[in-house]
């Protein structure tokens, strides 16, 4: 099993934590990780784009001039794509971009992402992240003590004030155990998690 150092809010090492190999020591499946990221980004798309084709724009019911004898090229409608006010040739229409992965694939991708962060020494465990008051400056100081920038901070349910304190810090996102996802784990340089959050992750995904 992998061992990681545990730090306090001052950035001092206060112990070590043994991670469960069933979650943090799996074989990294890059293909599943890629599928999970593509699915997540695709599922964010609204798919509501729409433009009118020549059959949907108004007007153009009559032929603008006779077929022959005018010197102009033949035209059947003033709403053909080459005319101003005409329809779009291959107009986008509303569609569903949803990509589905089964539960096993999602879990395997998440475990692979977490394992990759541990292997790259980008997984930081903090013994606790509890604040007495909501204070952005204090949270920023904690990240500075941990020498962390652009981080995904995984919190347990007792860190509500910490989550609010982190809202206004640039390049930082907080997440609960049940909301972590592959895209965020890979997007941020470092994953910072409390000991309680790590235990909860192992309990849910092991």
What is the end-to-end distance? 13 Å
Query: How are the strands of the largest sheet arranged?
Result: 2-1-3-6-4-5
Any low-confidence stretches, pLDDT <50, length ≥5? none
Provide the gyration radius in Å: 27 Å
Please indicate the count of domains.
2
Helix content: 25-40%
The major sheet is characterized as:
6 strands, mixed
Number of helical segments with 4 or more residues: 7
CATH H-tier superfamily of the largest domain: Ribosomal protein L4/L1
Q: How many runs of DSSP E, i.e. beta strands?
A: 6
CATH C-level category of the largest domain: Alpha Beta
Order of helices and strands: EEHHHEHEHEHEH
In terms of DSSP E residues, the strand content is 5-15%
- Tell the overall outline: elongated
From the structure above, extract its key features.
2 domains, single chain, alpha/beta, 6 strands, 33% helix, Ribosomal Protein L4, Chain: A, 6-stranded mixed sheet, rRNA binding, 206 residues, Ribosomal_uL4-like
